[in-house]
Write a structure and sequence with these properties.
alpha+beta; 4 helices; globular
Length: 116
């Protein structure tokens, strides 16, 4: 029984790791949807900027992945750099709910300075 559990755990780790690795960490122009909604439609940006200002540094921007799973209206926010995990929790509080639909995601980049 134990070898089966170990084998299952190894398979799950391999499958999940490959999905995360396939996601990548870079950003590029969107092709779908052809027109992106305004940032304030996705995140309560005024409040988020105020609360995230303490975490943002001009020399090192923070990048977050915001994912809505299929049929889910609540965003799952993940920092691409593990050092920004606390900031990801704050950003999750300000991500606006979406109508449940297919899987979709976007990235948020926050940099400190006079106009983050």
């Amino acid at each position: 029984m134990r070898p089966l559990a170990v084998r299952t755990a190894v398979i799950l780790v391999a499958v999940l790791s490959s999905r995360l690795a396939a996601q990548g960490t870079g950003c590029r122009e969107t092709s779908y949807p052809p027109k992106l909604p305004a940032p304030n439609a996705l995140v309560d940006s005024a409040h988020a900027i105020a609360d995230l200002a303490a975490f943002a540094a001009p020399s090192k921007p923070m990048v977050f992945s915001v994912v809505f799973n299929e049929g889910d209206s609540i965003a799952h926010v993940r920092a691409l750099d593990k050092n920004d995990a606390a900031a990801a929790v704050i950003l999750a509080n300000y991500a606006r709910r979406a109508l449940p639909r297919e899987l979709w995601a976007f990235r948020v980049r926050i940099a400190g300075g006079d106009a983050p």
